[in-house]
Design goal:
This protein is an alpha+beta fold and about 240 residues long. The chain contains four helices and 13 strands. Strands 2, 5, 9, 12 and 13 form a five-stranded mixed sheet that branches.
C-alpha cells in the first residue's frame, strides 16, 4: 500500500481548500490559512479500544474505534467512518510478529448512486459529515468472527485510508424532482406565449418552494459527488494488546 506524507502536509497540500462549513445542498469548501509559525493539527486521529485485555478462546472480543476529528469539518465516505468498513484494514499480529490471516476479510460495499442535482444525474457515494472537534465511534461486535485466535498474545491495530470530499448533495423530494423537470420543459417551450410561460413558471416554482419548506426538517442522507474528491490520507490507530486463554 502506498505510504502517504505526514497528515499535516496532506492537510495543507492535497486537501487544501476542501474542508469548510456546510451551508447549502452543494457545498464549496472555505480555504484555510495558517501562518508559518502555526503548527497544523492532524486531519483526524484513531483510537482503538476493547472492553478488557483478556478473553477466553471462544469469547466475543468487541472492538471500538474512535475517530477523533481535528480542526475542520470533513466530508468522508459513509462506509469508512460509520460502518464496519472502518475495520477493513485491521491487522492482528501474534507474539512472534506474524500477521494473523483472517478467516474472511472485513468488507463493506461502497456503491455509487446517481442523485438528481440541478437537473443533472450526478454519480455519488453516500457521505458522512464529521464535524470539527467531535468523535465518531464505530464498533466491531466480535473480532473472533473474522479471526481464529487460539490461546496466546496478540496485538491489534487499525488503519483507514480516509478520502475527503469538497462538496455534497442531498436527494430532493420526488415531487420536487418532477416539478423541476416541468420547470425545465416550460423554459424550453418555444410555443408558449410569454405571459402564459411566466405564470406557469411562477406557479411551478411556488409549488417547489412549498414542498421544500414542508419537508425541510426531514433528516436526509448526504451524497458525495465522485468528482469532488480532493485527496486522501492514511490514518493509523494505536495498538492494543489482547490475551486469549
Amino acid at each position: 500500500m502506498k505510504k502517504f506524507i505526514p497528515l499535516y502536509l496532506v492537510l495543507l497540500v492535497s486537501l487544501f481548500g476542501c474542508l469548510g462549513s456546510q451551508q447549502t445542498a452543494t457545498q464549496s469548501a472555505e480555504k484555510v490559512t495558517a501562518s508559518e509559525s502555526e503548527t497544523p493539527r492532524a486531519l483526524a486521529e484513531l483510537q482503538l479500544s476493547t472492553a478488557k485485555t483478556t478473553y477466553a478462546v471462544k469469547e466475543e472480543i468487541p472492538l471500538a474505534l474512535g475517530i477523533h476529528n481535528g480542526t475542520f469539518d470533513i466530508l468522508a465516505p459513509f462506509v469508512k467512518v460509520a460502518t464496519i468498513g472502518a475495520f477493513t484494514q485491521l491487522t492482528v499480529t501474534d507474539t512472534h510478529g506474524n500477521i494473523v490471516k483472517p478467516k474472511h476479510p472485513i468488507t463493506m460495499e461502497n456503491p455509487r448512486k446517481y442523485v438528481i442535482h440541478e437537473g443533472k444525474s450526478v454519480p455519488c457515494i453516500q457521505g458522512f459529515a464529521l464535524k470539527a472537534e467531535t468523535e465518531q465511534v464505530v464498533s466491531l461486535g466480535d473480532l473472533q468472527k473474522y479471526y481464529r485466535l487460539p490461546a496466546g498474545n496478540y496485538t491489534v491495530t487499525v488503519a483507514i485510508e480516509l478520502e475527503v470530499y469538497r462538496e455534497f448533495v442531498t436527494e430532493q423530494h420526488p415531487q420536487v424532482i418532477e416539478l423541476q423537470r416541468d420547470l425545465a420543459r416550460l423554459q424550453k417551450d418555444p410555443n408558449l406565449p410569454a405571459e402564459a410561460k411566466r405564470d406557469a413558471l411562477n406557479s411551478t416554482q411556488e409549488q417547489i418552494d412549498f414542498i421544500q419548506e414542508k419537508y425541510k426538517d426531514e433528516v436526509k442522507d448526504i451524497y458525495l459527488p465522485v468528482k469532488s474528491r480532493r485527496g486522501k490520507a492514511l490514518l493509523s490507530s494505536n495498538s492494543i494488546a489482547l490475551t486469549v486463554e
